[in-house]
């Protein structure tokens, strides 16, 4: 689920010969980067020609992400496992600790009618994305402006769990797992453009691009980036931040804050993934300190970011296996 915010940023000085070498690497021709990826066993991802942020012509180039459909589906299944344990019924849910419904494999947020919350609402954006891809939406959702959640409370949502409308919604989400995954990939693709637009400081911008590029190159399927953005957002929404009681500064918890926390320049994939996971853990624990009511989520959050340490194929629990098990249990009920 998404909960992202902005942080009053501190200036990060990128210095030293090692960092200069790393900066030179990310400005290298795309063909070189693709060749490097192809040397990695099992690599099935390409990093296409990089582009410069439209914000400032002198920016370092940002790598563009491309995922084959089969690998995108695999990542989608893993994120589904992260969000719901792969449970079919949980594809439409409303947590007791939240004021909105969470739908689909990524638990995309959907606000009730007349409700405004300081989070980025992602379910309407998902439906707009699908509509552009010519996916047929349920008639009651296929309106010029995507409607608000018709169930105004968790109690009403649960009461209607087996209503015709809810069943139609659930089946629609089960039938569009691939499209939901591509939506998450598209969001990850545009993340750095969004982040750089909120970062005026040139040195800080270079730092963000450098760390983003390190993570891209260290995770051949981009799973840590795609999952964290879906999980906690880009970190650019000023409403999604909390006040640090000691410093008086508002601190966010999205990808931007994680990348700012990273300071390494090593290229070893295992080391980079570990640094990203550790930075994500720090940012989330900082959120819990600033918002003590979030402590109930802490164990699950930390368990989730710990999966970033290893490639998706090395995970102990296979999302596909969990999904098959869930389907068998549902069929037996």
Evaluate the radius of gyration.
Answer: 20 Å
What's the assembly state of these chains?
single chain
Report the count of strand segments.
7
Determine the number of helices (DSSP H or I, runs of at least 4 residues): 14
Global mean pLDDT:
79
Estimated structural class? mainly alpha
Specify the helix fraction band.
Answer: 40-55%
Please state the overall shape, judged from the principal axes of the Cα atoms.
globular
Strand content: 5-15%
Order of helices and strands: HHEEHEEEHHHHHHHEEHHHH
Uncertain regions spanning at least 5 consecutive residues: 1-50, 53-57, 314-333
**Major sheet attributes:** 3 strands, antiparallel
Distance between the termini: 28 Å
The main sheet orders its strands as 3-4-5
Task: Sum up the structure in keywords.
two-stranded antiparallel ribbon; disordered C terminus; 14 helices; mainly alpha; 333 residues; 3-stranded antiparallel sheet; 7 strands
Plain-language structure description:
With 333 residues, the protein is mainly α. It is built from 14 helices and seven strands. The longest helix is centred in the last third of the chain and has 22 residues, at 269-290. The chain is globular, with a radius of gyration of 20 Å.
